[in-house]
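Colleagues,

Please find the record for the two-part complex below.
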Amino acid sequence: MFWTVTLSLLEGFMTTLELFALTLLFAIPLGLIIAFGSMSKFMPLKWLSKTVVWIIRGTPLMLQLIVVFYGPELIGGWFGELGIDNPIFNWLAGMKGLDRFPSVLLAFVINYACYFSEIYRGGIESIPKGQLEACQVLGMTKSQAFFRVVLLQVVKRIVPPMGNEIITLVKDTSLARTIAVYEIIWNAQKFIKNGGLLWPLIYAGAFYLIFNGLLTIIFAKLEKKMDYFKA
Amino acid sequence: MAILEVNELKKSFGKNEVLKGISLSLDEGQVMSIIGSSGSGKTTLLRCINFLETADSGKILVDVDVIFDGEDHSKHKAKETREKQLKIGLVFQQFNLFPQYNVFDNVTLAVKLKAKEREDYKANKKQILKEINEKAHKILCDMGLSDKIDSYPWQLSGGQQQRVAIARALALEPKILFFDEPTSALDPELTIEVLKVIKSLKTMGRTMVVVTHEMEFARNVSDKVIFMADGVIEEEGTPEEVFDNPSSPKTSAFLSKSFE
């Protein structure tokens, strides 16, 4: 039985890791774009970014999963009922949602990008103005100033809060089961339903714990790597 | 032959007019000190000349080349401004060194980025970088920092940091070097150390403009002293004229307070 459970949990954990890794891959750069949006001097863009961040941070991730997964088809249904024959309406009426995994991934990427964007913004805004002024009087372009001077200082400052968010992400992936993505908790719960076994759920906890332990070590290493300068 | 000319420079922040028409000129190889109490507009003047603020009107010429003209500054192209910016260097009160780079990289970073824009960069890369490195070594030696080139800013004293900042500005070969209260963040001993460096730059023929609260320094080193009050140049002249025979009562009042 132990091996059956282990195999099942491992299989679920692969889905968990896949969701985790892909979310990071897309949310880390997307967060930077949203951060620049929120700091933009162009008001409509700033307003848009702030509103998106407000909505995404202000509602439960679980709800966002459901909206992304069921939303398009639901909206399509409404347009279908209107019965207007027009290419745009027909297209809207024919809308099908994404598959389960891509839906979850999309919701996670948007959600985490918003949280990351606020961490980035805090980091960028905490860099003393004098750094940029020094770059300017030394004749650097704005992008040189950002990538050569500001960025690494920002990274150093945001590693601890990013570590927090990333560890939260590992655990948040368990929400994917809401729309029947078979990640590790789903698989563990199967044993409760089918055989009344509770221990696989505790066992699943150990997977998270070990993986987050690894992440903690990586973040500590990263912090140490940037210990050579103070900023 | 004036290397720096400022004509009727004006700047307001909202309703607060900080510079009410500043005109001055400076010859090559001369040192000018700008003194005055806080809020007199001396730092704003420096920041306008260095493009950290955009003046509302007036003209700035460096080496007879117009680097700022209030009449048509609105459409300044970023690249043009950068080119013009390089004619002048600025040393900050708070040093503003780049913390993640060691002393040598702090000095060479901007020069190397600039060199990449040269047309012959790819062909002569090795030679160009070698020249930049050699020059940086020489400047750091002149600043008495040859044993610190691998140190990071946090490992240095305030005086050493400020000398690195001066070296960093010099590496770009500006025609004029500006100092914004370069010793205000330093202890008295470290102040002396930095002022010595500025003095030595004068003997090397550097043209410099120093905003300072160090009256003794202004008197001993400057060729020209400007006293600013309420956004105007209240008094200007040689150090003897301004310090020993001030004509404006405001100058006398300021000086008597400063030497108390």
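Chain A has one domain: 2-228.

Comments are welcome before we finalize the supplementary table.
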